[in-house]
Amino acid sequence: MSDSLFPSTVSVALVDDHILLRNALGHLIDTLPDYRVVFLAGNGIEMMEYLKTGTIPHILILDLNMPQMDGYEAAAWLRKNHPNIYVIVLTMFDSEIPLIRLLQDGVRGFLKKDIHPDELKAALQSLIKEGYYYPVQTAGRLANLFQLNKQQQRLMDSKTLSPVDIQFLKLAATDLTYKEVAIEMNLSPKTIDALRDSLFQKFDVKSRVGLAIYAVKNGIVTI
């Protein structure tokens, strides 16, 4: 790996709540020359605990849908606290909204959960040599984002979600009342109403069910 951005042995960590998947991927990576798995975690909280011990990987493969601290929250935390870790996301969906959020949080690549071992090896090699890895499908979506006309760009900008939007969507997809959502978010009921109405307009929906469907389709909420 003389032309690599990393040392001769690259340390890798996996964060995924599916035990069989993360163990299988960990075993596969450990069989590859020049790679070493340093820890396996089931969620973002466990990941943080490993990192606090000083076990800092060069590459971290991160699932999005996890309990306690999901991949979005973990990616944001990593960007703030460990910006030198190269994060690559393991996911099954690739719509534009999650891509935008994750790129903003410094994610350097995306992998499908059904990835072939040869592609995994190629992805890791691309990451250590080029600093990023995007599958063909994802690269096409990213290219489209940067080739929009002005009207389309305004539409895309309007769909970019803030952390407050994300938190509200997650809570709105539960059985909490709007009053309870306001308490959970430490906001006034009037602010919650305004946030809800803004998202109704942004996503062109007319009900809480519409917001929930949007959140599920774009990977913000899983069922």
Textual characterization of the structure:
The protein has 223 residues and is an alpha/beta fold. It is 53% helix and 13% strand. It has helices at 19-31, 44-52, 71-81, 96-104, 117-130, 136-145, 150-159, 163-172, 178-185, 189-203, 208-217; strands at residues 10-15, 35-41, 59-63, 86-91, 109-112. It has a five-stranded parallel beta sheet, with helices on both faces. The protein is elongated. It starts with 9 loop residues before the first strand and ends in a 6-residue tail after the last helix. Mean pLDDT is 82; it is low at 148-158.
Sequence-ordered SSE layout with sheet pairings:
Elements: E1 10-15, H1 19-31, E2 35-41, H2 44-52, E3 59-63, H3 71-81, E4 86-91, H4 96-104, E5 109-112, H5 117-130, H6 136-145, H7 150-159, H8 163-172, H9 178-185, H10 189-203, H11 208-217
Parallel strand pairs: 1-2, 1-3, 3-4, 4-5
Essential attributes:
5-stranded parallel sheet, alpha/beta, Arc Repressor Mutant, subunit A, 223 residues, Rossmann fold, 53% helix
Sheet-strand content, in percent, reads 5-15%
Mean pLDDT across all amino acids? 82
**CATH topology (level 3) name of the largest domain:** Rossmann fold
Give the C-alpha Rg. 19 Å
For the report, how would you describe the main beta sheet?
A: 5 strands, parallel
CATH superfamily of the largest domain: Response regulator
Total DSSP helices? 11
What CATH architecture label of the largest domain applies? 3-Layer(aba) Sandwich
Strand order of the largest sheet: 2-1-3-4-5
Estimate the helix proportion, in percent: 40-55%
The CATH class designation of the largest domain is: Alpha Beta
Going by helix content, strand content and strand pairing, the class is alpha/beta
Distance between the termini: 42 Å
From N to C, what is the helix and strand string? EHEHEHEHEHHHHHHH
Unreliable spans are: 148-158
β-strand number: 5
- Taken from the alpha-carbon principal axes, the silhouette is elongated
How many separate domains make up the residues? 2
